[in-house]
C-alpha cells in the first residue's frame, strides 16, 4: 500500500527546475505582484546557485529595473538579488570569479544598463541609492575601464555620483565616496569631471563634519584617498584646487592652523578627545601635499609658491619638530618640506630664516636623555635644527626622521650655487673655530665615528657605542655640496688639520677622510662608515685632478685600498667568522667601491701627480690584477643594493624595513648610484688606458678653470629663459584648465539637452497616444459639463428664489419682533410710572427705586437702534422719578410695597431682554446663510468659466502639436526624398564605374541597404 502511494506521489523538484520556473515567470508575468514574487524566489537561490540564477534570470532582473522602476519594494529586491550574485557563498558549488566578470560584461556592454543604475540615484529612497552604488562598485571592480566609459557617456553620470557626497545618510554617502575613489584611480577624464563638480569643497565639508584630522576616522582617510586621486599627476585639477581657495582649507586641517570648531560637537569633546586614527589622518594629508610637489611637473612651482604664501611651510615644519608627533609623521612632514622648497630659488633662500621649536632629545627606557641638549624645547633656525636632528646620535627608531631631515638639507641646497657656498663657508668656519652649538658636517667627518657614542639603550635593545649614521649623513650632505661643482671642491680642499708653526703635521681634508676610511676598514667597523667615506671620495675625486693629486699625497693609502680590493671573498668570509671584518654582503660592496675609487684615481691622475700614472698603473695591474679589478666592479654592479637600488629605496625610505640591529638598509645616495651606473663602463676601461694619455678635462683644469663671468652671464640668460618658459607653461596650464572646464560644461550642457530631448520625445509620444482618446472623450466631456452646468444653474436659481423668500420672511419676522418689543416696552414704562407715583411718598424706597431705574435704563441702552424710542421713554420716566424724590420723606412707610413692585418689574424686563436677544441671533443666522448661498453661486460661476478656459487651452495645445507633427512629417518626407536622390546617384555612379571596368563590392550594396533600412526604421520611430 505504501509503495503504491509512493509511486503516485509527484516527482521532487530540484533547485535548477525551480530557478527555471521562476525565471520564466519573471520574464512572462504581466502583474507586478507576480514578478515581485518570482524575484523573491530567485533571491533565495542567488547565494547558493549564482550561476543558475544569472544564466536564467539576469536579463529579466535588469529589465525589471526599468520596467518596475516606480515600485520601490520591487527595485530593492532586484538590487539585493544582483548584489548576491556578485558575492555568492564561497562554499557554493557554483561559486566562481568568472560569474562576476560575466555579470559585469552584461551590464557594461549596454550603456542603458549603467544608465538605469545611475537613474536610481535620483530617487530619495535609501535602499535604491545604497544598493545602486554598491552594484556599480561591484561592476567597476570586475570591469573598471568599461564602467568608466559608461559613466562618462551617461547623461549627468558624474554629477549624480558626486551628489551622493551630500547625502545626509552615512551609508549612502560612504558608498558614494568609495565608488568615486575606485573610479578616479586611473581615469584622467573622470578626475577632471569630478573635480569640476565642486568635489574639493564637498570633501573638505565631509572631513570637517567627521571631526577633521584629530577626531575623524576611516571616512576621513577615504576622503583623503579620493582627494589624492583627483590631484595625482593632474595639473588641471591642481590649478583648480589653487584657484578655488582650497589651499587655505589645508592650513585649517593641519595641526597648528586657524582654530575652527567642528559643527555639532561640544567644545569639551573636541579639546579632550582624539581619534586613534589621528596619526594616519595627518600622514595621509601630508602625502596628499607631496602629490602637488612632484619634481619636474609643470604645476610644481605654482603649488610651492601657493603653499608657502598660505603659511603651510612653517606649519608643516612645526609638525616635523613637534614632540607630540610620531616618527613616521615627522619624517613625512620633513619630506613634504623638502619637496616644497626643492628647485625654487626664492623659497630656498627664505627657508633658512624660518625658526622651529626643537623638541627634547629622545628618551631611553631608563628615563634619561642623550647627553646632547637640554630637556627644554628651544627656538632654533631651521637649518641648525635639521643638522641637530640629522647628526646627533639617536636610537635606531628615529632613523626615518633623520633621513628625512637629511633630504630636507639636500633640497635646501639643490641647484643653488650661492646657498652651497654659504653653507660650506659656515661649516668651515664652525669647524675651524670648534665652538658650534649644533653638529658640524666637516667636524663629524674629520673626527670620524669616535665622537658619536651615546649612552643608554634604544627602544628595542642596547644602542651601539658608535652611531654610524652620523658619518653617513654628514658624507651625503657634503657629497651633494661638492657634486659637479669644481668651485666648492676647490674651497673644501683648502681645509686642513694641524698647525705647521707649532710643529704639528698638516693633514688635508681629503687625507683626513682617507685616514678615517682606512682605520674603519682595518677595525671591521659597521659597513656604513667605509661606504660613507668611499661615496664622498669617489664623488670628490671624479673629474678633479687637483683632488686626485691631494689624495695621492699619502702613498700608503693606495696600497691599503689595493689590499682590500684584492682580498678574495673566501678570505673575507673567514675574517668575518673570526670577527675581523664585516659581513659578506658588506665586503662585496666595500671591495667594489675600493676598486671604483682606485679606477677614478688612475683615470684622472696626471704625470705630475705625487704618484705618476706610469707608476700607478703597475700597482693596479700587478698588485691588484686586471681580473680582480674587473671582478670587484662587476660584483658591485650586480649587488642587489646597487642593481635594484630604485626599487629598494622606494620601500626603505621613508619608513622602510630595518636591517640587522634595527638599522635601515639604506647604504647609498641616489646621486652616487647614478654616478656609478653612468660610469661603470668607463671605470672598467680605465685600467687598460695608456698611462701617457690623460683626460682632456685635466688640461682645462691646468689652465686655471673657466671664466666665471661667462658662466654667470650664461646662467643669467638661462634663468631668464627658464622664467619665460615657466610663464609659458603656466599660461598653457591655465588655457588647458579653461579648455577642460569648457569641455566639462559643454558635456554637461549636451547631457542636459539630450535629457531634455528625451523627455520631450516621451511627452510627445504620450500626447500622440492620448490624442485620439482625448479627441473622443472631449465632446462627451464637454456635453456632460454643459448639462451639469445647466442643471447646477437651474438648481442655483431655485435655491436663490427660495432663499430670497426665506430672507423676506425673516426680515418681516424681525420687523414684527421689533414692533412687539416696542409695544411691550411702552406697556412696561406705563406700569413703572404708575408704581413710582403710588410709592413716591416713601423716601427710602424711592432711593432704591431710583437705583433700579438707572440700572434698567443702562440695560435698555444696550439694545439695538430699533429700540431707541423705548430708551427715550425710559429716560423720561427717570426724570419723573427725580421729581418724585422730593416726596420720599412722606412715603417711608410704603417702602416694602415698592420693593416688591420693583422686583416684579425687573423680572419682566429680564424676560423682554432675553426675547430681544434671541430674535437678533436669528436675524444674524439668516443673513449669514444668505451670504453663504450667494458665495456658492459666485464660486460655481467662476468654476464654470475656468473649465471653459482650460477646455479652450487644451484644444489650442492639441492643434499646435498636430501642426508640429505635420511639420516634422514634412521634413522627414523631404529627407527621404534627398536620400532617394542620393541612392539613385550612387546607383548611377556604380553603374558608371562598372562600365569603366572597375570592380564594385556587393558588400557595400548590402551594407548600404541595411543602413538605409536602419535609417528608415529610425525615421519611422522619430515620426511615431
UniProtKB/TrEMBL annotation:
The keyword Ligase appears for this protein: no
Keywords: Coiled coil, Golgi apparatus
Domain spans labelled Vesicle tethering protein Uso1/P115-like head: 344-687
One GO-annotated biological process of the protein: vesicle fusion with Golgi apparatus
Keyword NAD: no
Localization per Swiss-Prot or TrEMBL: Golgi apparatus
Pfam families recorded: Uso1_p115_C, Uso1_p115_head
Stretch list, region Disordered: 936-974, 987-1024
Compositional bias segments (type: Acidic residues): 1002-1024
Residue ranges occupied by any Uso1/p115-like vesicle tethering protein C-terminal domain in the UniProt entry: 903-1016
Record field: compositional bias (Basic and acidic residues): 936-970, 987-997
InterPro entries to which the protein is assigned, alphabetical: ARM-like (IPR011989), ARM-type_fold (IPR016024), Uso1_p115_C (IPR006955), Vesicle_P115 (IPR024095), Vesicle_Uso1_P115_head (IPR006953)
Major localisation: Golgi
Coiled coil: 711-745
GO cellular component assignments: endoplasmic reticulum; ER to Golgi transport vesicle membrane; Golgi membrane; Golgi stack
Name recorded for this polypeptide: p115 like vesicle tethering protein
UniProt source species: Lineolata rhizophorae
